[in-house]
């Protein structure tokens, strides 16, 4: 995560949040849970799940996951562990990059039959770097109900913890594996006047940081991991913050490179 501009240098603009909130309320989708009956409404329910600490799940998410007919998930085993913790026995079906084209029509058929389907990822909010958006887009195109049960998001948690400007940011997903392609992508992002957020694996972090320093220059950066660890691992610091270039940055990021 990097920023091109110190937060103090940004002019604060009048907030349009009140106007946006009123507009959003007027156009809001129906609630996932019917207030009259307490039952889960038919349709597709996008449900956020914890990003590491299983306690970070909302009460409404648990209600929806218990009440739907089917849970579409990246990995049935990962979601199964979470469901077992909370005693939820709802049927699970894998929906991921490997089978999305085949499974999407089946899920849409269930939605057409007024079934209740929850969409979850292995961790965090679905549709962030996963194929869920294609299912949501297809459901919306057919006029099928879609609701959101918000919750944990690794992207927003890392941004909040980083100390970098949060008034304007761009999430760029995973960078390419190879250095040449990674540098091309970074060059396209270099001029964006916002904090840049990317996902990267621990084993590629060292090379990715070197490419970022070469392409983006000496700008403030932060590397975040283990964002929601429990008490047993609480001593491990959750973020490192330093300029991309120079020995200070190298030292700050040494331990997160390792793990």
Structure description:
There is one protein chain. This protein has 259 residues and is α/β, with parallel strands linked by helices. It folds into two domains: 39-149, Tetrapyrrole methylase, N-terminal domain (Cobalt-precorrin-4 Transmethylase, domain 1, 3-Layer(aba) Sandwich), CATH 3.40.1010.10; 154-258, Tetrapyrrole methylase, C-terminal domain (Methyltransferase, Cobalt-precorrin-4 Transmethylase, Domain 2, 2-Layer Sandwich), CATH 3.30.950.10. It is built from nine helices and nine strands. It has helices at residues 17-27, 59-67, 76-85, 100-112, 132-141, 154-162, 179-189, 205-216, 247-258, and strands at residues 43-47, 70-73, 92-94, 116-119, 146-149, 169-174, 195-199, 220-224, 239-243. The strands form three sheets. A five-stranded parallel sheet has the order 3-2-4-1-5, with helices on both faces. It has a two-stranded parallel ribbon with strand order 6-7. Strand 2, helix 3 and strand 3 (92-94) form a beta-alpha-beta unit. Helix 7 (179-189) crosses helix 8 (205-216). The longest helix is centred in the middle third of the chain and has 13 residues, at 100-112. It is elongated. The protein starts with 16 loop residues before the first helix and ends with a helix. The model is unreliable at 11-26 and 231-235 (pLDDT under 50).
């Amino acid at each position: 995560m990097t920023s091109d501009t110190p937060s103090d240098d940004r002019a604060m603009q009048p907030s349009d949040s009140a106007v946006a909130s009123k507009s959003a309320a007027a156009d809001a989708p129906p609630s996932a849970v019917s207030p009259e009956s307490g039952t889960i409404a038919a349709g597709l329910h996008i449900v956020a799940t914890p990003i590491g600490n299983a306690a970070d799940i909302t009460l409404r998410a648990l209600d929806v996951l218990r009440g739907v007919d089917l849970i579409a998930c990246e990995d049935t085993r990962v979601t199964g562990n979470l469901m077992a913790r909370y005693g939820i026995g709802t049927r699970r079906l894998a929906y991921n990059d490997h089978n999305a084209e085949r499974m999407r029509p089946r899920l849409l058929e269930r939605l057409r039959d007024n079934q209740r389907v929850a969409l979850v990822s292995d961790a965090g909010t679905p549709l962030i770097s996963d194929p869920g958006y294609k299912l949501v887009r297809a459901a919306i195109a057919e006029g099928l109900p879609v609701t959101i049960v918000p919750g944990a998001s690794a992207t927003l948690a890392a941004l909040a913890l980083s100390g970098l400007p949060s008034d304007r940011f761009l999430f760029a997903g995973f960078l390419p594996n190879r250095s040449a392609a990674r540098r091309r992508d970074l060059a396209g992002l270099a001029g964006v006047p916002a904090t840049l957020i990317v996902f990267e694996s621990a084993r590629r972090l060292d090379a990715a940081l070197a490419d970022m320093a070469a392409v983006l220059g000496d700008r403030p950066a932060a590397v975040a991991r283990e964002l929601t660890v429990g008490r047993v691992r609480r001593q491990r610091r959750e973020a490192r913050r330093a300029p991309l270039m120079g020995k200070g940055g190298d030292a700050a990021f040494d331990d997160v490179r390792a793990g």
